[in-house]
């Protein structure tokens, strides 16, 4: 008996690959653009696979206010060309591995943000925010200013608060500067390495968290990387 004809509504191989890549392997599309076209990650993060042929991929990026450019379409060559799309999976994986190597990235992509949960991590957030707020205004620390936010305390400990007022600017800017440097270090040493695109929601969450809590955020990030490496190792067996 002849097999029934394929339904005209069944997705084509091209459609299945496009849907799968956009849904589950967006990080690979970002790396293709970064590697083949040197597209900055904050622009490449908008990557969408729009077409796949045996000879190439077509990847689109959404308009970016920052670059003042219209929607961009990039052609990523498949070399050598595929005989047909049935071999696309293996080739796309190989292309991603080549991009990872060329970009100096890790095979572990971090796609999530983990907020502070332990008492120590929460205490770090509260301490940093409290100190930044406390030293945010010299007027609030001046014991001679009866309208200052901390005047009830300043009036009881005038010598201490007079000293706080004198060093307010140095302490505030030093604290902010140190935390900004820590954020830059997090971006260079971890976020970029693990393919967290700049400007995305996950990137902003990690950067903001690192700013308000300091060293506990990178430790939490490293824990995510460790778990993902262990998961990948188990999957190979």
What does this structure look like?
The chain is mainly alpha-helical. The protein has ten helices and three strands, in the order H-H-H-E-E-E-H-H-H-H-H-H-H. The chain has a three-stranded antiparallel sheet. Helix 1 crosses helix 2 (26-37) and helix 8 runs antiparallel to helix 9 (201-213). The longest helix has 34 residues, at 158-191. The chain is elongated. The two termini are 42 Å apart. The model has no long low-confidence stretch (mean pLDDT 90).
Secondary structure blueprint with pairings:
Elements: H1 13-24, H2 26-37, H3 41-44, E1 48-53, E2 56-61, E3 72-77, H4 88-103, H5 119-134, H6 138-141, H7 151-154, H8 158-191, H9 201-213, H10 216-235
Antiparallel strand pairs: 1-2, 2-3
Report the principal-axis shape: elongated
Supply the number of helical segments.
Answer: 10
| Alpha carbon gap, first and last residue | 42 Å
Give average pLDDT, whole number.
90
- The stretches of 5 or more residues where confidence is low (pLDDT under 50) are none
Task: Give the topology string: H per helix, E per strand.
Answer: HHHEEEHHHHHHH
Query: Which strand-content bin applies to the residues?
Result: 5-15%
**Count of distinct strands:** 3
Measured as a percent range, the helix fraction is 55-70%
**Cα-based radius of gyration, to the nearest Å:** 26 Å
Read across the widest sheet, the strand sequence of neighbours is 1-2-3
């Amino acid at each position: 008996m002849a097999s029934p004809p394929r339904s005209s509504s069944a997705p084509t191989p091209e459609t299945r690959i496009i849907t799968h890549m956009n849904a589950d392997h967006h990080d690979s599309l970002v790396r293709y653009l970064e590697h083949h076209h040197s597209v900055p990650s904050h622009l490449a993060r908008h990557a969408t696979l729009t077409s796949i042929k045996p000879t190439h991929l077509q990847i689109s990026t959404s308009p970016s206010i920052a670059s003042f450019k219209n929607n961009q379409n990039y052609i990523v060559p498949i070399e050598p060309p595929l005989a047909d799309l049935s071999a696309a999976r293996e080739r796309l994986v190989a292309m991603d591995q080549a991009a990872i190597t060329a970009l100096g990235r890790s095979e572990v992509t971090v796609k999530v943000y983990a907020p502070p949960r332990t008492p120590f991590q929460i205490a770090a957030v509260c301490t940093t925010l409290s100190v930044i707020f406390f030293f945010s205004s010299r007027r609030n620390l001046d014991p001679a200013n009866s309208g200052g936010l901390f005047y009830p305390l300043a009036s009881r400990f005038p010598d201490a608060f007079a000293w706080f007022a004198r060093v307010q600017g140095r302490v505030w800017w030093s604290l902010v500067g140190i935390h900004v440097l820590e954020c830059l270090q997090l971006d260079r040493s971890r976020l970029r390495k693990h393919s967290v695109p700049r400007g995305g929601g996950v990137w902003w969450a990690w950067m903001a968290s690192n700013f308000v809590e300091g060293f506990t955020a990178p430790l939490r990030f490293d824990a995510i990387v460790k778990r993902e490496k262990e998961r990948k190792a188990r999957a190979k067996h």
